[in-house]
Every structure is written in C-alpha cells, then in structure tokens.
From TrEMBL:
Tetratricopeptide repeat protein 7 N-terminal domain boundaries: 3-237
GO annotation, biological process: phosphatidylinositol phosphate biosynthetic process; protein localization to plasma membrane
Annotated Low complexity bias: 257-268
Protein name: Tetratricopeptide repeat protein 7 N-terminal domain-containing protein
Tree of life domain: Eukaryota
Region Disordered, residue ranges: 244-298
InterPro entries, alphabetized: Endocytosis_PI4K-reg_protein, TTC7_N
C-alpha cells in the first residue's frame, strides 16, 4: 500500500485522474481510505470513478449506449450515490459524482436520468473556478452528453410528432451544449499543455508512473471527439436553414434580409470561435504538473 498522505497523496491522485491512469488510481485507493489520509470523504467517489472508467476503457474507442451495460456498472452507481448521500458538504465531490452518474446513465441509454444528473450537479449555475483539470474535463464531457441526450430524445419525439418547431428547438439546445463542450475541451487541452511545460522535472528527479503508461495524456476520448464533430455538422445545417429562410423571404417580395443569427456562423469558423471563447473558461489549477509530455500534432 502506498504510504503517501496529505498533499502528496492528493497530488498523486489528481495526476492519475487527469492522465486517466485508472490502474495507478486503483493502487492509491487503499491509501485514500486509510485513517488521516485527508481524502477519506472522496473514497467512494474515486472508487466509483475507477469502476466506471475502467469498464468504459475496456469497451474500446466507440461508446455505444445500451441498457445491457448496467449490470457491469451498477457497483459504480452505488458508490457515486453513496458519495452524494453521505458527503453532501463537499461541493466539488457532489458535482463530480453527479457528472459521473450522468456519464454512467448515458452509457446505459438512460437519457432522461442522465439529464437529471446534470441538472442535479448544478454545473450550469456554478461560477467558481475548476479546482482540477479532471473537474474541467468532466464538465466538458457533461455538456457533450447533454447534447447527445437531447439529440437522441429529439429523434424519439420526431416519431411521435411532426412539429418542425419542436425539432428545431431540440437542435438549437443541442448545438449550444456541443459548442460549450468544445470550448471547455479546448480549454482543457490548453491548460494541460501549460501544466506539463511549466513544470518540467529537472534531471535526476523522480518521474511519475503516469509518464510511462504509454497512454496519450491529451486524448479527448470518444465523447468529446464526437462532440467536436457534431458542432461542425450542426453549424453547417443551421447555416443552410438560415440561408433558405432568407431566400424564402426574398422570393415573397418583402425585400428584407434579416441579419444572420449568432448561430449561423459557418462551420469552418467554429473551431476559431471555440478557441477564442475558451480563453474565458475559468480554471484555477491546484495539482502539480502531469508527469508526461503530450503528443503534439505535426
């Protein structure tokens, strides 16, 4: 069992979570649970997180929501509910537990439950900076999950109603969620790079075990990668819809041309917009540098 305690243990836990190094986090759990570790009140949260993320990692690159997943993740669900029930005074733990539950329920195709979890987290009302990179990533994933849930529910509602206005409303809400997720995802990558390069270990210093896992630290994961794709698709679709609307007004002889809406920005400009907006994302890093260099694109 690791003999780390206090701030050193907390730093190592944060590093493992940011890296997605679930094997290392599993090794740290006995130390987290030990008396006077300083992290006793987040043990159930970390255990539930390890169980959920380890299972999802085994599923490969593509996450396919399915109710059949539930039997494999119900143990994680129990741990996360325990966190919410027994550690209500720890605001950051409650936030993260609810966001992990939203990911779990999305995985199990429980889309309405997932949206309720996100609402319970209060993430959309929070004004405080993210205390860790892991929290920043969880919120980015939650916005993406909310968008995916809204899209899935929109398809379901379309089969029951042909109301175009209703479908458009779903699409606009989903687009907002995907854009917000993209902003936070880009902010996550930027902050990760800053953390890595601002604390290069001197020669002879101990290197974190995360540096030899061989798993790219900057890998976004299937949910966020899917989100970035959906932003471009929905942007293009919205631009076409706005163009058709303006052409229809012109053909009716009104001679009026309405100004382009904020959501009619071309898809090609989306990534630039997200990068600009991500500068406003509030992040207050607390943990030390990640232990490995990020893979840089050519």
């Amino acid at each position: 069992m690791s003999k780390l305690k206090g701030s050193r243990l907390e730093a190592e836990v944060d590093r493992a979570r940011t890296d997605g190094n679930w094997k290392r986090l599993t090794e740290l759990l006995p130390a987290v649970r030990s008396k006077h570790s300083g992290l006793e009140d987040v043990y159930e949260l970390l255990l539930g997180e390890v169980q959920l993320e380890s299972y999802l990692e085994q599923q490969g690159e593509i996450l396919r929501p399915n109710k059949d997943h539930y039997d494999k993740v119900k143990g994680a669900e129990s741990q996360l509910y325990t966190t919410i029930r027994e550690h209500g005074k720890n605001g950051s733990a409650i936030l993260e537990a609810n966001l992990l539950l939203s990911k779990l329920h999305y995985t199990c195709a429980e889309y309405q439950k997932s949206l309720i979890d996100i609402d319970n987290s209060g993430m959309e009302n929070a004004n405080t900076p993210f205390r860790t990179l892991r929290a920043l990533r969880l919120v980015a994933e939650a916005y993406a999950i909310k968008g995916l849930c809204l899209e899935t529910m929109e398809v379901s509602s379309r089969s029951r109603s042909e109301s175009v206005g209703s479908n458009t409303s779903y699409e606009q809400k989903a687009l907002f969620c995907f854009e917000k997720s993209a902003e936070l995802a880009i902010s996550f990558i930027n902050e990760l790079e800053k953390t890595i390069f601002s604390a290069q270990a001197p020669k002879g210093a101990n290197v974190s075990t995360s540096s030899v896992t061989g798993k790219p630290a900057e890998k976004l994961g299937e949910i966020l990668e899917c989100c970035l794709e959906r932003v471009a698709v929905l942007r293009a679709k919205d631009t076409i819809a706005q163009k058709k609307k303006m052409e229809a007004r012109g053909s009716n002889g009104t001679g009026e041309s309405s100004p382009a809406s904020a959501t009619s920005q071309p898809a090609s400009d989306c990534s630039k917009s997200c990068r600009d907006n991500s500068q406003n994302s509030s992040f207050a890093p607390r943990s030390p540098a990640i232990g490995r260099s990020a893979r840089r694109s050519a």
